[in-house]
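Session log. Operator J.P. requested a structure for one protein chain; no other inputs attached. Running the standard single-chain path with token output.
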Amino acid sequence: MSLVPLALWILISGLDDLFISLVFLLTRRTPFPWPAEPELDRAPERRIAILVPLWREHRVIGQMLEHNLAAIRYSAYDVFVGVYPNDEATAQAVEEAERLHARVHLVMGPHDGPTSKGDCLNWVYRRMAQYEALHGVRYDIVMTHDAEDLVHPDSLRLVNWFSRDYVMVQVPVLPLPTPIGEFTHGLYCDEFAEFQTKDIPMRQRLNGFLPANGVGTGFERSALEHLAATRGGLVFDPACLTEDYENGFRLHALGYRQIFLPVRFQNGRPVATREYFPRHYRAAMRQRSRWVAGIVLQGWQNHGWRGAWPQAYWFWRDRKGLVGNLLSPLANLVFLAGLGNFAVSTGTGEAWRLAALVPPWLSRLCLVTYVCALVQVAMRTWCSAQIYGWRFAAAVPLRATWGNVINFAATVAAVRQYTAARIQSRTMAWRKTDHVYPRPRLGEVLVRMRTLSTGDVETAVRDLPQGLRIGEYLVQSQKLSEENLYHALSVQSGIPTGPIRSLEVERLATRALPAEASRRWRVLPYRVETGHLHVAVADVPSRELTRELAGLSALEIRYRLVRPEELDRLAVEYLPAAGSAG
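Structure written below.
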């Protein structure tokens, strides 16, 4: 009888999931009013501010800004990037982007970090307001993004279009695909596919509030000002670890309209913000502990179960993981033990021992929970297959089991962190994860920059001679100028490009690397600045190059792309002749 509470909990949770799945399958689906391309082109552009909060993101933020500034098909926008005074490397990376792009604005926070993401966003928002007063402009829409985001080229156009009728517009967020063997990241793929294909659309269909995804979310400015007026002028809750979820709930409570744009495919790819999520156990557990602490524990603390019963139902949906995450591994063990005992009993001809220990009514109850679980796994598999294909989705059951382990550890960590913060009367700190920025293919970058058409790239790939890279082939065949190639390489890699002026070269710095290594790798160091060695390269650095140069200098290497003839000129002027004493 000790299994009764476990079986009852699994049954209740399973019936809840089954209800959402049935609503998804049975309700009539009407076509979503998606705007046509000419309509998006003709829509007046409202001014958009993109807020990007950072803490130790110097390795990715340059690439993120370079790529997205080139890809976004919108003109009336600016990017405000928040950093902390004690994060000099990230500040320098943003300063470099600010020098190259008039749209980028560095926002230095008033105190050392990390504090919380909400606190950082509040300071970025204030700096945006100061910029408005100084330049006589006003941003109609505020969007949030992170340092690892691949923003879809049409994202801002869609937010601009739908913000005419909704004060909060959520563009889908989907993990980038990874190999089937990466169970941790694959778990994110499965969960986000299910969440954004089934759960969020059903949430809106049943009049639930829309929890923002934190990125790819556009807010009507006037609604944010109303929200800020309800909590002392703060647009984002600095004490909450999931300020995105909090704002989604509060805007709904204030009566504002929200919309989640359904997952839609364009040229075979989803119109969504893409990124890599944690790919290893520890990083995933760290991120998920923040989600549990913010959504479940802080949400419960701040809002209880107030509101009409439909609202309480969505609180239940969001918070049931607090118990479910702790019980899931135990349920898996009981299931495996029963399955193993059944296999042994079948092989030996003995009676199934577990059947003798469980009353008939409990056996039937377990059967119902098993059917609910099968339906849930089937639905997640179907949702994952819609985004990532059936081959990838075939491993959903294995990844779900692995997810139970991660979620158990994350929930334990969240309860421990939350309890310690409450006892010590302190705010929970921003427990962010390290990010890797995805590098798109060069052909994709050229198409997004509208330098070449998709047909031009496909033809070049088909006709590409063996041993020649696509960029070199396009330049040789005069389909692409060398200037445009280096611009695209800069966007692809996040490495700045442009000629190096004589005033930028420090002769002593040119000797910072052995001349033999500079010739062999075709690089030239040219400046030392606040712990960084600036190095000119004629190609995107390979892993082997970066590994060797890192071993030759105690300074952090910062690269700059220059054309081959420019690098040759610098080498003749500053490198000692081969064979000389140097």
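Operator note: The chain has a mean pLDDT of 89.
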